[in-house]
Design goal:
mainly beta; Jelly Rolls; single chain; 7-stranded antiparallel sheet; 24 strands
Amino acid sequence: MLRTGTLFESTIQPNFVSSDSLQHFPAESFPITHPIHWLHSHFAVGGWSPLQRLSGMLTAHMTQIAPYNGFTWHPHRGVEIYTWVLEGVLSHEDTTGGKGDIGAGELQRMFSGDWIEHQELNNTGELARVIQIWFIADPKYRGLEPHYQQIGKGGLPSARIGDATTYQLIGGGSPMESHVRGRLTATVIDPTGSTALVNPREDEDLFLYVTDGAGKLNAESGDVALRQYDVILARADAPEAILSADDGGSLHYLSFYLPRFMA
């Protein structure tokens, strides 16, 4: 399960991923960390996750920040970091002058270049919960100055597929710039609704991360219950599958289409 030779190699714990073209992993397959009283994180990729790195994606994790806490000034280099806010407000400030409050349904991108410092704070009395994704920046952009971009959900292209709305976050006509290899969408399935799982292209594999709600995955092998922070992996040759939401609410997930990382 390891593709080597470049910065974009994938590192996966031996025997964690099988040869099946469509696989489901419950949330408890991945570590939850609580290193300090104000921070909880669920690491689907990176950290102590069995999915250490996927085609240059260093981490994909949920971070929950308590009111009036957060990460004060700290540096990054050689990465592009995307932040997708699920609830609450995260305040960002960096050494390029980039600054703003990121609310639920907004996407932020920070390209570190050779060096950037920033802080991410929850300055409100409500919980902030975000998905943060770190990528190795493509070397062809080496030397590009660090910069910052933020787009609200209304500025992202969207389409209805079945009973779901899918937003294009990276690639697919999104106005969000990208210096990484991969595409990313965010999908919301209506309560009791369903939509087809969109398989990756021939040169891609899919990493799907459930961020909110509950539902099920229906494939030729049968139904599998889906819960918050579950993960689905799929190859281009995966059988047709349907994702559906329970009647208690909508089902939300992120779909990462990355250069191939499955055997």
